[in-house]
Amino acid sequence: MQPYQKFLSEVLIPEQELQERIRELGKQISEAYTGKDLHLICILRGGVMFLTDLMRSISVPHSIDFMAISSYGAGTRQASGHVRLTMDLRDDIQGRNVVLVEDIVDSGYTLASVLGLLATRNPASLKVCTLLDKSERRETEVSLDYVGFEIPNKYVFGYGLDLDEYYRDLPFIGVVNEEKYTPPED
Ligand code: 5GP
Fold this sequence. Notes:
Elements: E1 8-13, H1 15-32, E2 38-44, H2 48-57, E3 62-71, E4 83-87, E5 97-105, H3 109-119, E6 125-133, E7 146-150, E8 156-157, E9 173-176
Parallel strand pairs: 2-3, 2-5, 5-6, 6-7
Antiparallel strand pairs: 1-9, 3-4, 8-9
Helix pairs in contact: 1-2
The structure holds guanosine-5'-monophosphate (5GP).
């Protein structure tokens, strides 16, 4: 038995389903950005697996960059509404067609805050591609342009999403068994 198995209550999205949907998203983005300069921005660390698979499904030339943020209250699983930039982009985005690549949109605060910041840098366009959307939990309105899967209000891990920093490597999205898993104290 693998260590993660005791924390897994169910596989919500199996590997094949994830990969098929990502290929579709890549196709949609490729069609929308044909003949345009496309710049993907990934928020570390949860979006990394998604970014790398999505890139391989995008057939138009594109560049990538990364940023990192930390949410106050991270680890407690409570959205606080405050995020702090811990690593900025390397490149200027002025005049570029940016697609922000996210792992999951939950309350929407992280995304709203990052979009607000990026908008001040005058990109030509700014769109959002998220793998997962927990729309039931939304507390602030954000507009999503590309969504992989709408998911129920359950804490998930795998495929980039962590269980207190572990198991990002799993190729599927699983639901945490809240009875068996106790998050570490902050
Ligand atoms: P929001 O600001 O939209 O509430 O939260 C977004 C961030 O919270 C995500 O980028 C992710 O880091 C974290 N998050 C929200 N829901 C989940 C979840 O179900 N599992 C994991 N591992 N992280 C989550």
